[in-house]
Amino acid sequence: MDPCSAVGLAASILQIINTTAQIIQYLKDVRKAPEERAQIQREAVSLLGLLMNLRDRVEHANEKDAWYVQICSLAGQGGPLDQYHSVMIALAKKLTPVSGVEKLEKRLLWTFDKKQIKATLDLIERLKSLISLALQGDHFELSIALKLETHEVKDYITIMSKSLENVVEIVAELESGQKQAAKQYLDEEQQKVLKWLSPLNFASEQVDIFERHQQGTGEWLFEEEVFKAWLAGDINALWCSGIPGAGKTILTSIVVNHLECNYACESNAVAILYLSYRDQEEQSAKNLIGSLLRQVAHGKRTLSDDVLGLYRQHTPKGSRPTITELSNSLHSEITGLSEVFILVDAMDECSVNDYTREELLKTLQSLLKMPNVRLMITSRPVASVEAHLQGMACLEIRPADQDIRKYIENRIPKECRLMLYVRGDDAFHVSIIDTIIAKAQGMFLMAQLHLGSLAKKNNKKDVRLALQRLPEKLDDTYADAIKRISSQDKEDVQLAKRTLMWISCAKRPLSIIELQHALAIEPGAKELDSESISDTDVIVDVCSGLVAIDRESDTIRLVHYTTQDYLVRVRAELFATAEIDMTFCCLTYLLFTTSAQLSDRWGSNRMNVVENVAELTAVYPFWSYAARYWGSHAHEKAQYDTRIQHLVFQLLEPSNKALGLARSEPIRHNLGRDSLCDVPGMHIAAYFDLTELVGTLLDRGTLVDAKSDNYSLTALHCAASGGHIATLRLLLDRGALIDMLDRWDRTALIMAAQEGHQSTVELLLEKGADVNRQGYYKETALHAAASGGYPNIVELLLEKGADVNRQDYYKETALHAAASPNIVELLLEKGADVNSRDPVAEPVLSGLALRGDDSMLEFLLRYGADVDARRRFDGATALHVAASRGNKTAVQLLIDAGADLEAKQSYEDLQLTASDIAKQHRYMDVFELLEKAREQRKTFPIRNLTQSQNLSHESNSPAD
């Protein structure tokens, strides 16, 4: 083909367009330098539009025109376009996603220094100028610019060549002895990704719980026929129900230990969730499902492309994966394994807020459709859980008296007083054991509490009398423990009650050292007296068996969730001023850090906030809790207490730089702003919904739209992110600008939609918030609500005029981000284009195949999505993407929808079908499925199956 013919020139420009689009797509996955990546992406996207305009002009140009002759110089061999294309091809090869050790090497290839990045940006900018001149028809300026360009691009080629030489040297080092370093790097990267999936890791809980079991107990379970059937795989789901204190958690740890000892290998996986009333805030549906994914992925030698893809997709945007994405990735991880055991303890303690329990059970039930999954759930026999577990094999957890006997026999020798009383008196020894077993009524917890009460008696006679009066009801047993606490010395009573207050009323579980420091805080003190710190043995002793220490996880806890339930019910009697007392302690502790020495150390270094916080908590272990939660304790009553108000104004005094970290910590931690080093006091008041304090600060002259120094947050952003209506209304009434932007160009509306606060969204829209305002990545509130899975907010935004086809930075609409079928349906009803095409954006179906979202894939196919829509830069269809993920379900859906089985995807110099890709990735079950379908198509050619499905959908449309 003549390169200077209109057709040849247009084809050359098309190749450059495709390579540029490929670069833009790959740059999403580059690990380092997000700011530089974003710069190159933006410039490349801008250039892409000019290239497309140029191609259109060339296709309709007269080859004899002077303009056309100049364009030939621009695009000819060795010209600026040709040289630019060569550089972009080299860059594309560096960024092409691969797997295994090569993946590590590819990551190391992203080693451009600032000079190389500047050269890349300059090259793109000059080419944009040249094309603009060409499009304007300025022949003279273009002629001069072309002469200068030839020399400048050659300079850039030299820089890039040196970069590529450096790359070759890096790879050579890897091959000549740096494999261990590469492995260490890969391990660190894997741990980083795994922790990103979920903060929940139940390994330490497993160690703590299993250590509490008594040797020889729980063996009865392995003799039960239904359990043996579950273990053998004859049944895939088992619900073990039992009354409170029956030992369900200990029994779960015994099963986990058995599985890890007998089934552990790379082709199997054991995942465990220990649900707890104490951790409901952290144990969200996303974190729990993410933890299952983390545990399954951790057992593999290397992380899969699916998990890495999830990480790369979200980290540049600072977003988190949706429940659907996590669930689908979990399915993908499990697919290649032989046996997967999932154990969930205490389902009844799972939060029902924000549909946490419902979402978790939904995911677990979907996993049961996989032939290699076995699920075991324990809970109390409560109707709210039972309703979700109907159809599962059921086993009652009621420990044999023999198990309780073993527990007591092993425990008595550890109690010094009891050993003195039973020594030489076997009959008395037997009497203690038999009486406790009778009173325990099948509850290990009751046996534990009764034994603890007897161990405190001063003589043998008191033990005999106590045996006669042992309570038979749990509440009576707890009331008896509180009486024993109240009968101690005054100092012991005070320590015990403060301990129980902190453990039962804290916003999260406390570590041992955190509790010790909280208990050592004295009213009016200017610093913590280390001699006031109580020993852990003393703390446990004065609480009469109601608290226990988990050494592995370094936490102190109540002995059982029923203890928490009891203390909540008697809270008004035992801890009437708990929130005020706890707020006072938190603020007092934070003010310990105001000394001149600490001010110099932590107030001046604004660049290493995370390191400063780590150093601070090493010296002041309770600081993190105090900083993050003082406002939560103050929210109801404490904010009106004059003592508290005095301390709050000391904390919020902006001149005290040492307290800057304490002021910013709640927002830094909970909103993920790691480099936030200080915020105005009103931001904290708004974040904690301390409306009274916000009003006072405004009356004292605080600017209503004051911004935090390095994230540009306003108090309105803080109130909106928490869904605090009263504070939000006050700020707006006092003149807050409703569409103020933070550092990422997000408005209060976008933040409220992202967090799912419907009432807040309603108020902001009512007050005139711009429904289509875009953030840094051009996302709107509609994008945020759709990706978060909030259909009510999506509907509300659409009613208020949200642009259903507005594109974000990646040229994706809310439809690309939608997390559930009902949201998709809402968007489609409002005119969302299911087949929207853009040179950069992923087709909707390909995106769903990439995410592994099979239900959404099926849904959109019914709505008329183009089954053969192609990615512009490599021609891949959804079938190629599904095959590359080994997603057999999605492949079958696409085959049934009439996908083109012979469509080719470009990969370097190869043209690959979906079958080729499945084989290349060693997904032989998918390969066989595709090959079988190809044979069937040869015998029974299909007609437009997708069209017939569309007609079927239209005939069943809700509008009909």
Kindly describe this structure.
By secondary structure, the protein is mainly alpha-helical. Among the domains are: 6-177; 195-396, 3-Layer(aba) Sandwich (Rossmann fold), CATH 3.40.50.300; 401-472; 474-509 and 526-573, no CATH class; 844-955, Ankyrin repeat-containing domain (Serine Threonine Protein Phosphatase 5, Tetratricopeptide repeat). The protein contains 50 helices and nine strands. Strands 2-3-4-1-5 form a five-stranded parallel beta sheet, sandwiched between helices. A two-stranded antiparallel ribbon has the order 6-7. Strands 8-9 form a two-stranded antiparallel ribbon. α15 (356-367) links the parallel β3 (339-345) and β4 (373-379). α17 (401-411) packs across α19, α36 runs parallel beside α38 (748-755) and α47 (888-896) runs parallel beside α49. The relative contact order is 0.05.
List strands and helices in order, with pairings.
Layout: H1 6-27, H2 34-59, H3 66-75, H4 80-95, H5 101-108, H6 114-136, H7 139-175, H8 179-197, H9 203-212, H10 225-232, E1 237-241, H11 248-262, E2 268-274, H12 285-298, H13 305-314, H14 323-335, E3 339-345, H15 356-367, E4 373-379, H16 383-386, E5 393-396, H17 401-411, H18 416-422, H19 426-440, H20 444-454, H21 460-468, H22 474-486, H23 490-505, H24 512-520, H25 536-542, E6 547-550, E7 555-558, H26 561-569, H27 571-574, H28 578-590, H29 596-603, H30 609-619, H31 623-634, H32 642-651, H33 660-670, H34 681-687, H35 691-699, H36 715-722, H37 725-733, H38 748-755, H39 758-766, H40 781-788, H41 791-799, H42 814-817, H43 821-829, H44 844-851, H45 854-862, H46 878-884, H47 888-896, E8 905-907, E9 910-912, H48 914-920, H49 924-939, H50 945-955
